[in-house]
Amino acid sequence: MDAGTTQTDKPIWRAVVDGVEHLVVKTGSTTRRFMTVQEEETFYNIFKGELQYRKPDVVFLWGGLLLERAIMRDSRDAGIPVAFYLVNGGYRDKTVFKDVSVVITDTQATADLYKERHDLDCKVVGKFIEPGGVKPLVPRRPDAITFINPSFEKGVSVFMPLVRLAAQELPEAKFLVVQSRGRWEHALEELKFRPEDFPNVKVISHQHDMRRVYASTRVLLLPSLWHESGARVIAEAQLNGIPVIASDTGGSAELIGKGGVVLPLPQEVRENRTKVVVTEEDLRPWLAELTRVIRDQQYYDDLCHITEIEGRKHDIEISTDRFINALAQAALSVAGKGSAPLARLAEVEH
């Protein structure tokens, strides 16, 4: 979003993107929990004004801290339904959802998790990926095994030992690490490795446009150690016909379907994310699959074909229809809004 150079010193930015107005509160950090009290107060006051002025049909948000709870409470007090976007396994307090009209999630795995934990009935809508934003404009030349976001949650403590084992037994394998919230340098320090331990790894900075990355990706590696509600990178890879090798966490298997391979990791490894406790025996199935997709071209071609078919289920039109239906049901369930069309959506961003 381009807020305009004239607004860079202001606490509130205004911008219109594709006909949608955005009001953005400038914060000192991109991490929600580091938002200051003053920034929260600015955000809350803007929201109250917009709530009164726009009188939206639905307020759509996520988060369980005091600011979000106040927004949800005020919305319900005003007779406006609240749609909560739930795409991680971290919500332990059921009271977060007491003012919520409808809970929307991306996979059945997360819906099942919260049904068991809090008896929530979540609406599963899938992923929202615009294919044009992730498909390369040039022919793909897939030669890299790509790992995105080298964080402990995403399994960097599994990735590093796997890469070292591959250097010995699969020397032709090239690995690409894309920096994100997780930082390669931080992981090296925490796990007591050195850069020279990984001659088969190329590390690149955070990418605003992932199309070049996918153009060079042969297979996507996702050894996550937490509940992956529905990793966006799985859908993006499959829309490009790129197979995914992932751990059996959360909704990964659901999204991957037959377009890749899902492998287990021991509970001890999941619970010790910031330590290398994975054994060579644990890594053998991962290395075997990497070896197959690199050395067996027919197997790889067949897997890519299946992946392209699986990628069709991530059609944004299908997900959008599900999303709108879920919001419409919430809007119609609130007293006094039964005959109102779903014409407006109040967007609350972090």
Notes on the protein architecture:
The protein has 350 residues and is an alpha/beta fold. It has 2 domains: 5-130 and 317-347, Glycogen Phosphorylase B (Rossmann fold); 131-314, 3-Layer(aba) Sandwich (Rossmann fold). Helix content is 38%, strand content 16%. The protein has 12 helices and 13 strands. It has helices at residues 37-54, 66-77, 108-118, 156-169, 184-191, 211-215, 232-239, 252-256, 267-271, 280-295, 297-311, 316-332; strands at residues 12-17, 20-25, 59-61, 82-85, 102-105, 122-124, 144-148, 174-178, 201-204, 217-222, 244-247, 260-263, 346-347. The strands form 3 sheets. The chain has a 6-stranded parallel beta sheet, sandwiched between helices. A 5-stranded parallel beta sheet has the order 6-5-4-3-13, sandwiched between helices. Helix 1 runs parallel beside helix 2 (66-77), helix 4 packs across helix 10 and helix 7 (232-239) packs across helix 11 (297-311). It is globular and about 65 Å long. Residues 335-350 have low confidence and may be disordered.
CATH architecture of the largest domain: 3-Layer(aba) Sandwich
Major sheet strand order: 9-8-7-10-11-12
CATH class of the largest domain: Alpha Beta
The count of DSSP E runs of length 2 or more, i.e. the number of strands, is: 13
| Tally of separate domains | 2
Order of secondary-structure elements? EEHEHEEHEEHEHEHEHEHEHHHHE
Looking at the structure, the CATH topology of the largest domain is Rossmann fold
Strand content: 15-25%
- What number is the mean pLDDT? 91
Helix content: 25-40%
